[in-house]
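Course assignment 3, question 2. Fill in each field.
Student: A.L.
Task: Predict the tertiary structure for the chain below.
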Amino acid sequence: MKKFRLYFLTSALTVVAAMVLVACGGDDNSSDTASSGSGDVASELITAGTLTVGSDIPFPPFEFGKSPNYEGFDIDLVNELAKDLDLEVAIEDTAFDTIFTDVAQGKFDMVASAATITPEREQQVDFSDPYYEAEQALLVPEGSDITSVEGLAGLTVGAQDGTTGEVYAQDETEAGSVRGFPNGPAAIAALRNGQVEATIIDQPVAQDAIDKGETGFELATTIPTGELYGLAFSQDTPALLAAVNESLASMKEDGRLNELYQKWFKIDAPKGVIDGTNTPQ
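Answer field:
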């Protein structure tokens, strides 16, 4: 009888030990899969091995040129991210006023288009951590006596469709009307051609036009808006967002992002970008 009890106890302990080992083994496998994330990212991509990116072109110095040889700050940034993720890149030119709907519906994996992170946009898409800090610029005809947004009362003001510049002109000025244009260069050309009496556009875009020697307008003032640009994603691709944020953090830490700032803007990446993070709403 004692022998039977000992045998029974030994067998029971063996079964329990086996169950514990199986359970531990299952946890390890789950942890490995979650930590690598590679399978999750691959399953979220539209095309295997390729990062499909929507961008509104032209918007120099962030994106410009002809397909497939696009250039710009955003283009260089995307290429660096793709290297970290071991992916090819496919850039698709698209209108900015529909770009967030497009990525939300799965037309692109990601949007890289000098896009400001806003609460309104985060109702539709998720944004990465910030990679650029921007202001708006008020452009006026050469020799104009307009020196601030207060001077826009009753005037026709131009901006790019769907941008924060357009929203600012509509909500923060006394403009008589606000006219939208398909891209930044078109909004500047409208001012130069007399279609509008002033234009509000992202400051780096305005400065790029000035640096290239374009005439017929001048910079009246910059408008501090505290804007931060982020990369936009469908809310259904959290693994891809996490992987891109990890790559961005690496670029900030190892100096690659600063190198891109120096290349395109001749300045260091600001502290607000280097230390900035964003939590999807």
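Instructor remarks: The two ends are 66 Å apart (CA to CA). The first strand starts at residue 50 and ends at 55.
Grade: pending
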